[in-house]
Amino acid sequence: MDVRIEKIGEKEKEQVLIQCRSVTEEVEEIAAFVKSRQGSLTGVLEGRRFEVAVSDICYIESVDGKTFLYTKEKVYETSSRLYELEEKLRTRHFLRISKSMLISLLKIQSIRPAMGGRFTALLYSGEQIIISRNYVKALKAALKGE
Amino acid sequence: MEFKKFLIEKLTLFFMLSTMITAAVYLIGSAYDRDALFGYDALLSPMRYAALCILPTFVTWSRRELSMRELLFRKALMLVLVEGVILYMAFTSPVIDTGRMQVVLTLMGSVLVIFLLVNLFLWLRDLAEAGRMNQDLENFRRLHDEESRE
Q1: Which CATH architecture has domain A25-105?
Q2: N or C end: fewer C-beta atoms under 10 angstroms in chain B?
Q3: In a 10 Å sphere around its CB, with 0-12 CB exposed, 13-18 middle and 19+ buried, how is residue A48 labelled?
């Protein structure tokens, strides 16, 4: 696949155009990546595709090989893997808090101690998420901006 | 959890237990055997008891992170084992009057109280840690809001 970058005038609308013979998984991944760079992720809900704004996502969880995006009210399935999203959303204040979960630091209302060195993150949505003890150090560093 | 980290935690626990066992021996001794006299060897007994009580805590070790239910089960198992260790030491000790049921029950109660106190202290330590994280979270949000406005 050739990659071509064209400079356009100030008044023209910027766009990324993918020309392909068929919409393969690879093409969808590229499209999803471009969208995520603009602040949204593609999610599927009840068989329909949606662009989910990153700012709406509270946390992302991987369950049985599937990845889900949790907003305040809805849960979308996404084709992206958790490690891919972790990489993509690193600059958007998402952080891994357990083997199977990423959380938006901006959605955490408060943190409370749980048992065995773990902590519980209370989200603005009212949900409570367990922060694994192995990721507490990384969370502390992220909150300090390190 | 890394085994090295686990061992460091156990070392901290050892010192906590030594202190609490010393206090428990003082209280139980004052209640049941106020006039007893001991040699210097007695100073080592809290450390000896603490070291032996650490052994059952190894049942809580796991390479992977335990679920809340697994952790609770292992902690309960640990408590039972610690009670067993203490009772074994009491019944084999010539100094402790295990013929008196009251003494045995007090010993078992002391183990339970120390177990609860250790867990309370660990929880309070985590509570303080959570307080610091909440402060950092507040600063983080404030910085993010300022950046968003710019």
Answers
A1: Beta Barrel (2.40)
A2: C
A3: exposed
Sorted by where each begins, the domain ranges of chain A are 25-105
The answer, yes or no, to whether residue B1 has pLDDT greater than 70, is: no
To test the contact with chain B by mutation, choose from A104, A115, A120, A140 the residue with the greatest count of B C-beta atoms within 10 A, namely A115
Determine, for residues B1 and A119 on separate chains, whether the beta-carbon distance falls below 8 Å. Answer: no
Complex confidence, ipTM: 0.70
pTM of the predicted protein model: 0.71
Does B134 sit within 8 Å of A139, measured CB to CB? Answer: no
Cα distances (angstroms) measured from residue A21 to each of A3, A10, A27, A100, B22: 15, 31, 10, 35, 79
Half-sphere CA count of A146, side-chain side, radius 13 A: 7
